[in-house]
Amino acid sequence: MNEEKKTDLPEQEAKTASEETACEEKETKAAEAEAATEKAEETAAKESAEKNAETKDAKNARDGGKKEKHRFRKASAEEEKIEKLEQENAELNDRYLRVCAEYDNFRRRSQKEREALYNDIKADTLSKFLPVYDNLERALKQGTEDEAYRKGVEMIMNQFNSTMEKLGVTEIESLGQKFDPALHNAVMHVDDEEKGENEIVEVFQQGFKIGDKVVRFAMVKVAN
Predict the structure, then answer these.
(1) Model-level pTM?
(2) DSSP letter (8 states) at residue 176
(3) Which of 22, 44, 109, 202 could serve as 221's disulfide partner, Cβ 3.0–4.6 Å?
């Protein structure tokens, strides 16, 4: 009986050892399986992170492209707006210069018209007083023994001439000058070898002008 127990004991120990080995193998396999699972999970997580990163990069790239396109469109719109404003400014500046030029021409033309009108009015007014001048001149040419009378006529004539000078009226030079149809009115002609051709030898009536405008032509005698 004891021998049989002794005989079974090694077998029992071998069986126990075999079971322990199997158990260890199972644990090792379980550990390897768990490690493989963890690695697979890490790989999957890494791949997912990379995929998400790629997706995010792609999205950022798309967003960046949209923003860049938006900025380009905005810049193009601003450039068109600036170009349009510059064109409008150039047109307004050109219009302004034209208006200034037209106004300057109008001002000059108006000034000339006013001056011409003023000279016409002065000439017309002066022509009404010229007969007085002619009578004073005749009075001075008449001989008289009354010196006070002569001096009074001379004072009136001097005052008359001074007033005409202030109005810009000047006498037309005639005596000894060459006849000019734009200034003189020849009413007589004489042959005189001592005088030059078309030389004025006598003034019957004094002529006057204001600037270049003739108020009255000088009435003269012309030689040769």
Answers:
(1) 0.52
(2) T
(3) 202
